[in-house]
UniProtKB/TrEMBL annotation:
It comes from Janibacter cremeus. This is Cytochrome c domain-containing protein. Residues 166-270 form the Cytochrome c domain. Keywords: Heme, Iron, Metal-binding. Pfam families: AAA_16.
Length: 404
């Protein structure tokens, strides 16, 4: 097959040629946009799921829908080592620009509030020329969104930005990727501000994406967050959706798959969108002609596995210390033991008891807490429920058992 016409795209956050299995989420979001501009109550949205299921791709797709609806939009990616003020200020600056409000004085006032919010991040004693500027020409508005209390400031900021959108009968949507990496104070501020916007009917929503424990992060900050957001779990694709993700792009290039090839690909990928793209690309490059056969999948699988081992699994494994890697391998071995014995059901995410990991390592659970906590902070594992942990990366246990 011609590699130049290869239609598959196994990139981080890169939109696949066929966004299969996400029609329901997209159509629901269109309803949310229409309800909000009609003055009807709606909740902000949180997308949760393992890595590789396409949360970032879907987040970008929802943003595109908001842009088409003539909303103002901005996007940021949360990082554990960065506060919320700077990236959120940049995102809101972009959202205000997209709105295209024609009243210059009102726009200048809101931009001044955004600038004031951003510059409150400066440490005491910072010289004026050293204060970070979000690229806003308007003067900072003193006494608005600059109290230093992120929760108070964000409520004031969202109120002013939302008011600007309401003037035009449109809305503002802020998209936050990797939302579980926000600091506790920032999470609390987001919850409080979204709560205020919901109560006041302001046309401003937050659309977040994060790992499966994001709901727990939000709930730990504000108890009402369970009712404040609409949570959507983004999972692997069903069999027909996975097949469609492969066959639709191939059909556009006048190529087909034999049924046995699709069977082999679903077995290899488990229906995870990133894996589908990685295997699809490798198989296309290796297949001599259409239709693509099961033998082509078998020949190409080592290349796909090698690509995943380096770019998807290996890069994450390298972030762990020797002690943390020992913990990860023990998790994988515990899951394998459960599967082999068959006397206990292994769930879809292959979660295991922390006590079983400790028993396998012949250590007290308390002595393993530092390694476990570090892995949680690095986003390599998450706690599905108290006393249980699971990998945030699908098939990571299999990788560890095969590679280490």
């Amino acid at each position: 097959m011609d590699p130049i016409t290869n239609p598959y795209a196994p990139g981080a956050g890169q939109r696949p040629p066929e966004l299969a299995g996400r029609d329901e989420q997209i159509s629901r979001f269109d309803v949310v946009l229409k309800r909000i501009v009609s003055g009807r109550p709606e909740r902000s949205l949180m997308l949760t799921g393992l890595r590789g299921v396409g949360k970032t791709v879907l987040l970008n797709q929802l943003r595109s829908a908001a842009v088409r609806a003539k909303w103002g939009t901005g996007k940021l990616e949360a990082r554990p080592d960065q506060g919320l003020r700077r990236p959120l200020s940049s995102a809101l600056h972009q959202a205000v620009r997209e709105l295209g409000h024609t009243h210059e004085d009102e726009v200048a006032h809101v931009l001044g509030v955004i600038k004031s919010f951003a510059q409150r991040d400066a440490k005491p004693g910072t010289k004026l020329r050293e204060v970070w500027n979000p690229g806003i020409d308007a003067p900072a508005v003193k006494g608005r969104a600059d109290s230093g209390d992120i929760e108070i400031d964000l409520v004031e900021l969202f109120t002013d930005v939302g008011g600007l959108a309401a003037d035009l009968g449109r809305g503002i949507a802020i998209f936050i990727d990797e939302m579980q990496d926000l600091g506790p104070d920032d999470v609390s501020a987001i919850c409080a501000a979204c709560h205020e916007m919901s109560q006041n009917g302001a046309p401003l929503i937050v659309v977040g994406a994060g790992l499966p424990h994001l709901p727990a992060v939000l709930s730990a900050s504000k108890s009402y967050s369970e009712r404040l957001f609409r949570y959507q779990r983004i999972d692997r694709l069903a069999r027909d959706e996975a097949d469609h993700a492969l066959t639709a792009p191939a059909s556009d290039e006048m190529a087909e798959y034999e049924q046995e090839a699709l069977d082999a690909l679903y077995f290899a990928t488990g229906g995870y969108p990133y894996f589908i793209q990685a295997y699809g690309k490798a198989v296309w490059d290796q297949a001599p002609q259409s239709p693509i056969r099961a033998d082509d999948v078998r020949v190409a699988s080592p290349e796909a596995e090698s690509e995943l081992a380096v770019g998807f699994f290996g890069s994450r494994y390298e972030r762990a210390t020797p002690g943390e890697r020992e913990y990860l391998r023990a998790m994988a071995d515990v899951a394998a033991d459960i599967a082999a014995k068959g006397d206990e059901q292994l769930d879809d995410i292959e979660s295991v008891l922390t006590s079983d990991v400790a028993n396998l390592l012949d250590k007290k659970p308390q002595s393993l807490s530092p390694a476990r906590d570090a892995l949680l902070k690095k986003g390599l594992i998450y706690s599905a429920e108290r006393g249980r942990i699971a990998f945030t990366v699908p098939h990571f246990g299999r990788y560890l058992r095969e590679q280490t």
